[in-house]
Amino acid sequence: MTAEEPLLQATNLHTWFELRQWGFLRVGSVRAVDGVDFELGRGESVAFVGESGCGKSSLARTLLGLHNPSHGDVIFEGQHLSELKGEARRQYLARVGYVQQDPFGALPPFMDVRRLLSEPLIIHGVKDRDERERRICQALQEVRLTQVDEILPKFPHMLSGGQQQRVVIARALLLEPAMLIADEPVSMLDASVRVEILNLLRRIQTERGLTLAFITHDLSTVRHYADRIFVMYAGRVVEQAPVEQLLDNPQHPYTRALLAAIADVDADNALDERDVPDGEPPSLLHPPEGCRFHPRCPQAMAGLCDRQDPPLFEPEAGHYSACWLQDPERD
Amino acid sequence: MTDARERLLQVRNLQLHYRTRRGTARAVDGVDLDVGRNEALVVLGESGSGKSSLAKALMRLLPRNVARYSGQVMLGGDELMGMDDERFRSGVQWNRIAMVMQAAMNALNPVVRVGEQVAEPLRVHRGWSKAAAMERVVETFAIVGVSRDFVTRYPFELSGGMRQRVVLAMALITEPELVILDEPTSALDVLTQASIMNVLKRIKREQGTSFILITHDVATSSELADRVALMYAGQVVEQSDARDFFHHPAHPYSKLLMDSVPRLHQSEPPGYIPGEPPDLIDPPAGCRFADRCPSRFGRCSEDPPAFELNGERRVRCWLHEEGTDHDG
Ligand SMILES: Nc1ncnc2c1ncn2[C@@H]1O[C@H](COP(=O)(O)OP(=O)(O)OP(=O)(O)O)[C@@H](O)[C@H]1O
Ligand SMILES: Nc1ncnc2c1ncn2[C@@H]1O[C@H](COP(=O)(O)OP(=O)(O)OP(=O)(O)O)[C@@H](O)[C@H]1O
Ligand code: SF4
Ligand SMILES: [Mg+2]
Ligand SMILES: [Mg+2]
């Protein structure tokens, strides 16, 4: 990353959800995001990777200001999100485009494409009809829905999954954001369409110089679409590195397990069982003490990993891993 | 299928069409398949290509709007399509062929303990006593990697991976010759997927079961496949040995599909297939892939039959017509 001011910073970010029984009895907190720090540079593409329930969507919604952090803050272009109120907050939402998880639920079924793309412009005060039409057409062109006149009167159910996702992306681009957050933008789509949508996001990101943060659980696609990777486990970022370093020299045992579980397609894959750590990710209500991965970790060191939370170590420049194995002081 | 393997299932010209308001949807339209004993055939295909319909046709789990259901299905020497419903239900369905339906893990009955649900095929179809059935449940749980304590749990107390193992146990409990798995891992995480695939590999090795694994994911398919059948718009366009399919795909669609598979350590980005599959109502007259096919030529406006290639390979593409040499 360059020395210039980052576009976005997350500092000691925590998003906890209070869990209540019968609607009022406080049972505890789901620590969906539990102490996350990072900086995103301008024009950078990053991927957050992790298993279901590790807090990826909660982190995305916290960055968008849709959840208030329980501790810590999000700083965008030098401004603390917690201090933005009213109109300023609305302006922030125009600066950050959001492609939410589940494209099929993302589009209101009763609106045609023209109407659902007009809505955000109207809300953000674009009063002139022609101006709206111009911006809608431009956004549709940009997502390669070039038959604009055919698309505009259609309702979501008349579009294929890939077309729906393009409309969702067009909607996220309408307000000329500085950053785009895309939550599992292709996981619901067919393989043949996935690559097309990811290429599209990457192209828009480079052409517009956007910061793109996308969430995925599929490490096999990240190489071509992200500059940096954040691996999340149980509410934490456990490893972060430029994509090549992460894939070619993974440090954290959890990242290594993820990479060992996926192999490039080969007929021999059917012959051998894969090494998979036992068990499942911990409850976020009562995460284990020490390293959160220790109950499943093949390299856990008794007396250390089950007691003390590993901080982020930096085994090589720009490459961070929260694992005691990378502690330079370890003997 | 390698010659040494005994044939278990042979499907010829299977058709399953649906009546819809817009016309007849030809979801399964002339499918041929072969599965050997202790073999895993993977049925690959994108969404809507007819994979689940094919599975339902084999299991005879048909919706009410069937317009056509025909063809030949031979299971270990018995012709199934001619069998009346009653005999099929008592002798074949869930007994000799069992199935894990797409999204089955979310369809478990929320108010019944999972052990009882898994025991159901034995209790209902075979009239086993509760005690005997529960004993078998515990054994089957061991095979799929579920601890016996889970027998008395309710579905909501189980993680997705555990529920998937439970529905797998339900399919295995009658010790069927053939198990059809419809997208058994697609809703699961990478690590959970890998451990479910490990379970399937172990069952195949230790129990000698045959599988039809349905998936849209090429990487998943390579974790079990001996053979691959690729579906496109209701038809099987290529059926090959897994090694041939993954490393030397023959049909133009297979080639493009293999190019679109992301590879962890590959420096060029994966490719993609522009365009969309045709409507199953009134599909185009010629090759159904023609308008997306980079190798299309004059002949492709006629419907290609499945051409037999070396190595028990069948490819539905004019490039492979005998005597033509278009390979490349
Ligand atoms: N609004 C909420 N209230 C209470 N708990 C929540 C809320 N949103 C998320 N959670 C919980 O927080 C944890 C993290 O959820 P989150 O959706 O962020 O995970 P994720 O990594 O996006 O998972 P997936 O890959 O399944 O989308 C889960 O245990 C979830 O149940
Ligand atoms: N009962 C039905 N009536 C009418 N059309 C149906 C019915 N069931 C499926 N179809 C249609 O038949 C086609 C094939 O559907 P099918 O579910 O077999 O595909 P699939 O390959 O399993 O797809 P997916 O990967 O999404 O599960 C689709 O166009 C589908 O809409
Ligand atoms: S800190 Fe210990 S338990 Fe955690 S990943 Fe590293 S070695 Fe494993
Ligand atoms: Mg999510
Ligand atoms: Mg299906």
TrEMBL record, chain A:
Organism domain of life: Bacteria
Start and end residues of each ABC transporter domain: 8-259
One Pfam family here: oligo_HPY
Any one GO molecular function term: ATP binding
Biological processes per GO annotation: peptide transport; transmembrane transport
Keywords: ATP-binding, Nucleotide-binding, Transport
PROSITE patterns: ABC_TRANSPORTER_1 (PS00211), ABC_TRANSPORTER_2 (PS50893)
PANTHER family linked to this entry: ABC TRANSPORTER, ATP-BINDING PROTEIN, TRANSPORT ATP-BINDING PROTEIN
Stored NCBIfam families: oligo_HPY
Protein's name in the database: Oligopeptide ABC transporter ATP-binding protein
Phylogenetic placement of the source organism: Bacteria, Pseudomonadati, Pseudomonadota, Gammaproteobacteria, Oceanospirillales
UniProtKB/TrEMBL annotation, chain B:
GO CC entries: plasma membrane
Keywords noted in UniProt: ATP-binding, Cell inner membrane, Cell membrane, Membrane, Nucleotide-binding, Translocase, Transport
UniProt keyword Nucleotide-binding present: yes
Keyword Cytoplasm: no
Chief place where the protein resides: membrane
GO BP terms, alphabetized: peptide transport; transmembrane transport
Location of the ABC transporter domain: 11-258
GO molecular function, one term: ATP binding
Topology of this chain in the membrane: Peripheral membrane protein
PROSITE patterns documented for this protein: ABC_TRANSPORTER_1, ABC_TRANSPORTER_2, SIGMA54_INTERACT_1
Highest taxon in the source lineage: Bacteria
Compartment(s): Cell inner membrane
Annotated SMART domains: AAA
PANTHER family (UniProt xref): ATPASE AAA-TYPE CORE DOMAIN-CONTAINING PROTEIN (PTHR43297:SF14), OLIGOPEPTIDE TRANSPORT ATP-BINDING PROTEIN APPD (PTHR43297)
Family: Belongs to the ABC transporter superfamily.
Protein name: Dipeptide/oligopeptide/nickel ABC transporter ATP-binding protein
